[in-house]
Design goal:
Blueprint lengths: L5 H8 L3 H10 L13
Amino acid sequence: RFGGNISRTAEFVGMERSALHRKLRGLGVASGERSASAR
């Protein structure tokens, strides 16, 4: 939806960008990693 843009994604879900980064790391999603549908 946001093409991997963490700032826009965080704004959409109502989180701080840094908090979203922590959440993604905790879930094992590496930064820069995109799903097959985002390619």
